[in-house]
Every structure is written in C-alpha cells, then in structure tokens.
C-alpha cells in the first residue's frame, strides 16, 4: 500500500490504460479487483491532477438490441457477481436445463458500477437512470481509460458474436410497446414442413420469396428504381396457420420478425415503429381489417388521403396512415411484409394493389388431405423411435390406415387445423383412440359451432 501512494498520477493513468501492467504488481495488496480499481479511482480524485482522467465511454440505451447483447455477456461471464447492486427478475425467456424449475431467477447489474477485466484491460460498467421525457430509462456505460475506444468496440463485437451464436436456428420475435420495438422472445425456428397447407399454394409463396431474395432480382429492382420489398396477404379463418406460416418464413430466411397488431395501433405509433425497423426483416401486420383500413375509398378514386383521415370515426390506424408507412420513406428496403386478416372482403383495394400486396394466399379450413397430413404429423414417430428395421414399414402402414379412417370421419372445410390439432393432442398417447372418439368430437364441435352461430345471429339482429 505504501508503494501505491508513491506512484505518481501520470503513471497511474498510464497503468490503467495498459493491459494489466502496473496493476498486476499491486493487485496482491488488495482483496479483489474492485477494491484495487476503487483505490486507483479515489487516488485520482484526491490527487487533483489538473487535467481530468482521460477515458473513453460506450453508452448503450435500454431499447437497443446492444443492451440485450451486453447484458447477456455480463451474465454469461458471471460478471453480475461483481456488481454491488444487482436486480433479480423471473427469467421468462431463457431456457433452463431443468424445465421443471418454477419461476427461475435471473440476476443482472442494477444502478451502480463495477469493474472488470476484459482482455487484460480494466473496464468499468455503470448503469444509470436517465430522464427520457416523462419517465426514466436505464442506460449502460462502459468506460476504459485512455483516448482510444478500440477495446470497447472489441468488447461489443464479442458481445454481438456470442449473442448471435445463442440465436442460431432461432427466430427472434419483436413486438411493440407503445412506439418502440421490444424483443419478446427467441423461439426455435419452425420448419416450413410443420405448417400444413395446400401444397400448391405453399410452393407458390416459397418460390416467390426465393425469387425475390435472388441477388439478381435485387439488382433488377435497383436498375428499375423499384423499392426492394415484397408484400404478401395471408387470409383465412382463425386457426388456419397464418401466423405460424409467417414465423416459419422468418425462420427459413434467418430473419427476425417484427409483429404489429393493427387493432392496438394508431398512425403515429405505426409510423414510429416503421421508422425503427432494421433492414432485412419480416414485418407481420396482423388483423389489418381491424382498423381504418376497413373503410373503403369506394368507387371514387379521386378521394384524397385527407378525406380518408377525416372519415375515420375513431382513433386507430387510418387507411391513409397505413398506406403512408407501407410506401413512405420509413418503409425500409430489403424487407418482407406479411399482412394477415380473417376478412379479406373488407379490405380496401388500395391496400391490396400490386406493389403493396404481391401475392395473396388463402388459408383454409381443413380438407381431407390436410386432415390426413395433420394426423400423420401428430402421430408419426421420430426416425429413431421405430424399434428396428422391419418395424418401420409396419408402423407406417398402420399409421396410413388410421390416418385414412380418421380423414373419412372429419367433414371437409368445417374445422380449422388448430381445432383438429387440439383434438388430436388430447389423444397423443393413443392414435387409435383418436380415431375411435373422432365421431363424438365431430358431433360435439358441430353443435358448439351451431350454438355460437345462432348467438352471433341473434346479437346482430338485436344490434
Ligand atoms: N395449417 C396449419 N398447420 C399446422 N399447424 C397449424 C395450422 N393452422 C393452425 N395451426 C396451429 O394452430 C395454432 C394457431 O395457429 P395460427 O395462430 O398460426 O393461426 P392463424 O391463422 O394465424 O389464426 P388467427 O387468424 O386467429 O390469428 C398454432 O399453434 C398452430 O401451430
């Protein structure tokens, strides 16, 4: 300790900006790195150096994805232990090895600072709450001594790489909170084969996307000054796989998906959200029929956008607002837009014209072929589970037979794939029971649907 106080301030400055040089010599005099670092910093303050400590700082805002990157890195490297002020939260997102753990806890640094070594450099990590309009928002700053921010960039690059490694074969879903994007979760990429659709339609959409993503296509768009983006409209009754298919597409393209629920939006928020979209992503606009978009321009093509605005009777997304973000400057290139609706007949032609919607795909209630595929999809054993050569052929034959009987019992275009799947899940342990109880399920669901229809009809008449 006596030694330390004899070190001149410029030498300490020099020492701190070097990878572990002088600090190495003195560290044994302290019980841990934080004490050592604190001593140095205090020492600086008390020495009245005349010139302030030269330092470079990297700041990270709460709503930027770099925040998740650095937090994950700090946590993965056990550095949250170094923080003297930590926060606890129930980990709802990260998978734990023990799926039975109820409400697993996760810790992270909270307001305050700590020091850590990175590639033999001493860095400080600090969280503060800063005023942003009407509320305070967390901000992280990482500081190193010295004028060069190179080591901070290196750290960020490491954080980014580790973060992306953890997201391999995953689809990250972003949802909106007010007017900013929030990472909701990262789910295993859903294979396209798990969404059961009319094969022709599925193929048509996939071919279109493939063609769009071809580098030659991009050049063509550019040569013709056409914005490089593609729009799809997926329409059909609830539970037919529109959202699931959109997620699968994002997974197949290794893109993140940004989901907007139109009913909970207004023009301003939608505009802000589109402005904050990254390049190269899938944007999913759900239930586009549910807003001002349902008000048609009518036959008068002369209607101006401001007419549409004034016609809108409630706060929400107006048709002009929606068209503006789809075409406007904040509409990023290199993106795939998917719009979904249960009511395509309510949509304005302006919204679905080519350029905004390039392909429309109808999702339908289960027909025979789909019911058959769903049955096999639910009950087919994974390859390794067949119990030996020879067994596989027999099991396949039996499965096909059961699927055929099941298919004959399910009426066509009455039940959604979601309903069929929910029923089969009840008999996951017994494919034969699923067939045996099928008639009863069909009768019950029929009745339920009739009652619901009658109630809706009555409600509409009273309304
Ligand atoms: N065609 C399908 N193939 C496989 N699974 C499906 C299909 N349709 C629905 N499902 C299953 O049913 C559930 C609901 O599906 P999904 O949310 O994709 O339907 P949707 O058409 O988007 O419904 P909504 O119009 O109500 O938003 C999901 O768990 C999904 O896995």
TrEMBL record:
The keyword Secreted does not apply. It is found in: Mitochondrion inner membrane. It catalyses: ATP + H2O = ADP + phosphate + H(+). Its main location: mitochondrion. Coiled coil: none annotated. Keywords: ATP-binding, Hydrolase, Membrane, Mitochondrion, Mitochondrion inner membrane, Nucleotide-binding, Transmembrane, Transmembrane helix. It is a single-pass membrane protein. Transmembrane segments: none annotated. Residues 228-367 form the AAA+ ATPase domain. GO terms for cellular component: mitochondrial inner membrane. Belongs to the AAA ATPase family. BCS1 subfamily. This is P-loop containing nucleoside triphosphate hydrolase protein. The lineage of its organism: Eukaryota, Fungi, Dikarya, Ascomycota, Pezizomycotina.
């Amino acid at each position: 300790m006596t030694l330390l106080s004899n070190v001149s301030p410029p030498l300490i400055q020099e020492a701190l900006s070097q990878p572990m040089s002088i600090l190495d010599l003195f560290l044994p005099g302290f019980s841990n790195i934080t004490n050592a670092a604190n001593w140095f910093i205090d020492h600086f303050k008390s020495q009245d150096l005349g010139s302030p400590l030269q330092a470079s700082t990297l700041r990270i805002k709460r709503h930027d994805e770099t925040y998740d990157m650095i937090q994950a890195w700090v946590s993965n490297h056990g550095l949250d232990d170094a923080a003297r002020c930590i926060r606890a939260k129930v980990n709802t997102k990260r998978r734990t090895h023990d799926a039975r753990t109820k409400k697993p806890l996760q810790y992270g640094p909270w307001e305050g600072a700590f020091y850590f070594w990175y590639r033999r450099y001493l860095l400080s990590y600090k969280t503060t709450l800063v005023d942003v309009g009407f509320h305070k928002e967390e901000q992280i700053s990482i500081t190193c001594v010295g004028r060069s921010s190179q080591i901070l960039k290196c750290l960020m690059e490491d954080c980014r790489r580790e973060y992306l490694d953890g997201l391999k074969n995953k689809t990250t879903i972003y949802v909106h909170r007010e007017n900013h994007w929030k990472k909701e979760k990262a789910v295993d990429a859903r294979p396209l084969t798990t969404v059961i659709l009319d094969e022709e339609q599925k193929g048509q959409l996939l071919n279109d996307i493939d063609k769009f993503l071809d580098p030659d296509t991009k050049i063509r768009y550019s040569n013709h000054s056409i914005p490089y983006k593609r729009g799809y409209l997926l329409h059909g009754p609830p539970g037919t796989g529109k959202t699931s298919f959109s997620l699968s597409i994002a997974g197949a393209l290794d893109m993140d998906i940004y989901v907007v629920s139109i009913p909970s939006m207004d023009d301003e928020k939608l505009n802000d959200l589109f402005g904050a979209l990254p390049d190269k992503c899938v944007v999913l606009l759900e239930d586009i029929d549910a807003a001002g978009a349902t008000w048609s321009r009518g036959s008068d093509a002369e209607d101006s956008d401001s007419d549409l605005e004034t016609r809108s009777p409630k706060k929400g997304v107006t048709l002009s607002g929606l068209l503006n973000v789809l075409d406007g400057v904040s509409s990023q290139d290199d993106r795939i837009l998917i719009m979904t609706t249960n009511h395509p007949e309510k949509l304005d032609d302006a919204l679905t014209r080519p350029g905004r919607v390039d392909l429309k795909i109808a999702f339908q209630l289960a027909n025979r072929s789909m019911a058959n595929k769903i049955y096999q999809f639910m009950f087919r054993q994974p390859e390794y589970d067949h119990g030996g050569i020879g067994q596989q052929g027999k099991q396949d034959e039996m499965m096909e037979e059961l699927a055929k009987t099941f298919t004959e019992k399910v009426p066509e275009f009455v039940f959604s794939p979601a309903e069929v799947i929910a029923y089969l899940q009840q008999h996951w342990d017994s494919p034969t029971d699923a067939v045996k109880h099928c008639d009863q399920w069909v009768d019950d669901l029929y009745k339920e649907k009739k009652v619901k229809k009658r109630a809706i009809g009555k409600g509409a008449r009273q309304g």
